[in-house]
Sequence to fold (289 residues):
Amino acid sequence: MMSLTADKLKGLVLSIFQTHRDEIGCGDCFEHVDRFAELVQSGKDAAKEMPHVYRHLEMCKACREEFEALLSAIEAG
Amino acid sequence: MNDERSNAEWIEALFGEPDQKALADLRARLLRGMGYALKQRYRVTDADLEDFVQDALVRILANLASFRGESRFTTWAQKIAVRIAFSELRRKRWEEVSLHELGTVDEESDAEASALAWMPSPVQSPEQQVTRQSLVTLLSTLIQEELTDRQRQAMMTIVLKGMPLEEVALRMGTNRNALYKLLHDARQRLKRRLEVQGVTVSDVMSAFESSG
Fold:
């Protein structure tokens, strides 16, 4: 038996409901995340300009962690 | 901070026999960025950062031809360095852990391995507990009925045990991209079934409202 906390249950179910038919994978996200990061850094609407990357980052914890680190890294100059 | 070099200047300086000044500048840039990004949140030493950046430089130089200019060269390079760093951090964190140890693989009973037990919070109302328990029971059933063995194993390991995607992929003999797609298919199947069962996002949100 695997124990499920409230946070994990909610996260799992919401991720199921947020699933889109045409999600990109980690490979495609990695290809374009540098441009996405610069859009975010410059205050532009990155989610609107690159919705597939935005959606993947919402769904994929691993890619999101790396994106957040990339954003910090480029902000360091 | 503005780049001193344009993208074209970076590529020209690094292609073939790299200009040592450009290489040193890039190294310094990556070290600064990686230090800022990683040191506060992760347990990394200066030696770790040096190793990550060194590995990144090798990969960057080997893949210069793939740079398409969609971003600044230094951002693209930083992306590669970040990927290398996280791969190594995750590998170290999880290297001693097998899927068996996490209890997500049970050769005796696959049903038992995927069964979910609810951990009620003491602050929930009885109504909330019933709703959440119902959700867990339903989800457990759907996971058992809808998903392949590999999907079940991957989902349980990542969602419940928190093992990173690429570490699970490695142990399952696949790669991160393929595993993401496997899980995407799994989520789609579960979504269809939840919708057939008449469960909505509102139902889920109200089960977790206020004190949960």
Observations:
- Residues 26-41 of chain A form the longest helix (16 residues).
- Residues 13 and 19 of chain A are 10 Å apart (CA to CA).
- Chain A has one domain: 22-75.
